[in-house]
Amino acid sequence: MDRIQAMSVFAEAAKLGSFVSAAEQLSMSAPAVTRAIATLEAQLNTRLFHRTTRRIRLTEAGIQYLNDVQRILADIAQSEAAIAGVQLLPKGTLSVTAPVLFGELYITPIIAQFLRDFPEVNVHGYMYDNIVDLLDTKIDVAIRISKPKDSGLYATTVGYVRKVTVASPDYLANAPNLKTPEDLKHHTLLYPSDFKEPPVWNFKRNGKTVAIRLQPRFECNQNRSTISAAKSGLGITRLMSYQVADAIEKGELVSVLDEFNDEKLPIQVVSLEGRHNLEKVKKFVEYVKSALAKDVYLNS
């Protein structure tokens, strides 16, 4: 088996998370797949997969090598298509994950347009507020609102958001003074929560973090419910700027303590393969970047 074929076997095994599944997909025997991976590991003098009796998982070296392999295979496919006069178009199933409310407001419309433009693509959408492991879940693209933490992933920044503190005009008209973060202890607080950590809001003063421990009157694991409670005049909440941008524009909520806002967080489109993605991934990243670049609330 030549090196390129072995790379294809490796990429398929990494994608499916199983030597047996890769063998079935490639119409090979399971021992042949195992031998191909073993040969690659011997040539590279490193282990590409952690193996157990039930599953396989890429090693750190395997993740890095997968990025290179995907790039090489994509380049070969594009070169062959160019010689044949064929334009590669996205096709197959694309799996995308995003935070729940961000996914509803921004990513779902992008997915809809993507599906209209590329009829040979299907999309599986997973909206979660927690970070999803792309390898474990076999997800192609993740939209994350945070600083990058995994150097084994490829990420491109498509915008910025920050936490903002808001309340309704009616609440503020009848509430105690609110000039510093410490004044929050005199107010009714609404806390969007996963109930896993103590309620704390972080602010910035003179470049230093000011952590305010809270005693919320209302805690809820759904951001929409917290926003609704704030708009009704119940109290003050703190959420991502994009989550309350529409309510601020309509005058339903007012931003307060702006001079104490913490630093911006990047909105990133994250994938495994790197700059020469599979065509469906590369094209979807382009769609997300183009659409979000036009939104003033994500680039101010």
Automatic annotation (TrEMBL):
Keyword DNA-binding found: yes
InterPro entries per UniProt: LysR-type_TF_proteobact-type, LysR_HTH_N, LysR_subst-bd, WH-like_DNA-bd_sf, WH_DNA-bd_sf
Superkingdom, taxonomy of origin: Bacteria
Keyword list, A-Z: DNA-binding, Transcription, Transcription regulation
Organism the protein comes from: Alteromonas naphthalenivorans
Domain HTH lysR-type: 1-59
Family matches, as Pfam families: HTH_1, LysR_substrate
UniProt-listed Gene3D superfamilies: 3.40.190.290, Winged helix-like DNA-binding domain superfamily/Winged helix DNA-binding domain
Keyword Transmembrane helix in record: no
PROSITE patterns: HTH_LYSR (PS50931)
Family membership noted in the UniProt record: Belongs to the LysR transcriptional regulatory family.
TM helices/strands, residue ranges: none
Alphabetized GO MF terms: DNA-binding transcription factor activity; sequence-specific DNA binding
Annotated GO biological process: DNA-templated transcription
Designated name of the protein: LysR family transcriptional regulator
